Amino acid sequence: MLPQSSVAYDIPRGLNRVLTSWRSNSDPSPGEFSLEFTPQVPPQGLIRRGSSPYWRSGPWAKTRFSGIPGIDASYVSPFTVVQDVAKGTASFSYSMLRNYKLSYVTLTSEGKMKILWNDGKGWKLHFQAPTSSCDLYRACGPFGLCVRSRNPKCICLKGFVPKSDDEWKKGNWTGGCVRRTQLSCHMNSSTKTQGKSTDSFYHMTRVKTPDLYQLAGFLNAEQCYQNCLGNCSCTAFAYISGIGCLVWNRELVDTVQFLSDGESLSLRLASSELAGSSRKMIIVGTTVSLSIFVILVFAAYKLWKYRTKQNEPNPMFIYSSQDAWAKDMEPQDVSGVNLFDMHTIRTATNNFSSSNKLGQGGFGPVYKGKLVDGKEIAVKRLSSSSGQGTDEFMNEIRLISKLQHKNLVRLLGCCIKGEEKLLIYEYLMNKSLDVFLFDSTLKFEIDWPKRFNIIQGVARGLLYLHRDSRLRVIHRDLKVSNILLDEKMIPKISDFGLARMSQGTQYQDNTRRVVGTLGYMAPEYAWTGVFSEKSDIYSFGVLLLEIIIGEKISRFSEEGKTLLAYAWESWCETKGFDLLDQALSDSSNPAEVGRCVQIGLLCVQHQPAERPNTLELMSMLTTTSDLPLPKQPTFTVHSRDDDSTSNDLITVNEMTQSVIQGR
């Protein structure tokens, strides 16, 4: 569909002009999807699959479709809608995007409507729908609500319960929900007085309003409310800017909850449903208040008891060389590191309680703790069964004691008592990046701007390690689980147990013991043990692509392709614009995403010399300068299916002098 052409209907003449998909990308015969304009008032765009609705845009509101999030007053609409209700005609036309002469609308064979524009270098995706499983028509059945940020995605509207509990538990939501408490006006008679006195409205926000709506004349917001309240058959109403008053007199279908934007919807419920919510809130509030009071009293008692047992102050930090481990530690190597005593750490972590455990690192568990002064800490406890753990422990103390940067995790001190070896860090409330990135719900909390800030923050931390610190440090285990996030979502590189130092102009080293995490290791390091600044750059490239795609490299599988192969094909076909998790497309900057994909591919080049150094990487991320073209990464040559039978691709598992640590 080119600019100035239209989708339209003319009821008296029996005409209906629609946009029909191809059967496949190579077969132009009519496919199963069609895009039409509905004769509802106001109208809406509708994609059908055969004769069944597949996706709808929501009603037209003068300059926008109200069911498409991300379109606000600042949006310059390329659409024009003209509807003549009296004549039974309407047309939906598309004009050129501002500043771009070449653009078009297409309906793909998979049922996606796309708007693309050309910037002189290639075609860019401007808009796409549907983008989420919640966008599919009637996904949660009658009176069901599809929540984009939730998994499972379907819940019942307030005051409703699943029609079939068994089907609902199986993930079959098409049967929808039924009202839990019958409306009072239905129980008595449909009089205006009874309707007003016994039923109430529950107000929802950020929703795509249901289908099967009706326009209720020229009413203002208050009149809209009164009109629905006085009509017992009115199940819901919405007053939408650019439309006016919409009412629903039938079941509510295809209702979606957005993360942002959307409209307000008022749902008719029996008054007892809302009264029950108020009582529950009172009960919950009272319970929480009493619980907090009891906890404070108990904490005060324990603190008083603890202090009365002490004959003299027990210092938080002690400086002692009585234990044998001190012989292995030269004082100049750990200057500025606080040494905690074991009693302080056991008290802070509730004797390493399992309830305080934050996670399991490569060399032991990590616990959350709270010191007497209220400061929260993270305690890394070295596993006694780890044969190589002591070396990594000493290495981490020596390294982090000399490194200070806002994008590196801060070491507060250490504690060594007998076989126990502990590292004490600042506690970061948002834990590690993988907690957000690979969770179907939490990933929505890091939209594209936050992800781009995280990418830049990690690069700044890497620049400090490689160039700006007094020691040149190669991390050797850069990955998403080693990127921690503070309360402002600022990234901090952690876990320096495998890091190596180099002096002066030393750029490269090698090891007989290859350690790290599969998927993140550069080819030259995995195959020969040679590591350098460029091997960290390779790991950063993998991490960057994971942040964009939202999938873990070790678990990624798309049509049998590895993550790097998929990223390479995407860049070749669309310059990587479609690589970002589609659920975040509303927040994305396509040009910025595509540039980051290209940078990621440059970082994972087979030859270290073809990868950017850290200074060049930082420049690429903070400027709009031209980028070199990447070559196909080595690990994209073979698919996952090929790897199991091919002997051409050397893998880390074939090296006899390797120690692969589960992270």
UniProtKB/TrEMBL annotation:
Coiled coil: none annotated. Pfam families: DUF3403, PAN_2, PK_Tyr_Ser-Thr, S_locus_glycop. The chain crosses the membrane at residues 281-301. It comes from the Eukaryota. SMART domains: PAN_AP, S_TKc. The keyword Amino-acid biosynthesis does not apply. It is found in: Cell membrane. The keyword Disulfide bond applies. It is a single-pass type I membrane protein. GO terms for molecular function: ATP binding; carbohydrate binding; protein serine/threonine kinase activity; ubiquitin protein ligase binding. Residues 185-271 form the Apple domain. GO terms for biological process: innate immune response; recognition of pollen. Residues 352-635 form the Protein kinase domain. GO terms for cellular component: plasma membrane. Its main location: membrane. This is S-locus glycoprotein domain. Keywords: ATP-binding, Cell membrane, Disulfide bond, Glycoprotein, Kinase, Lectin, Membrane, Nucleotide-binding, Phosphoprotein, Receptor, Serine/threonine-protein kinase, Signal, Transferase, Transmembrane, Transmembrane helix.
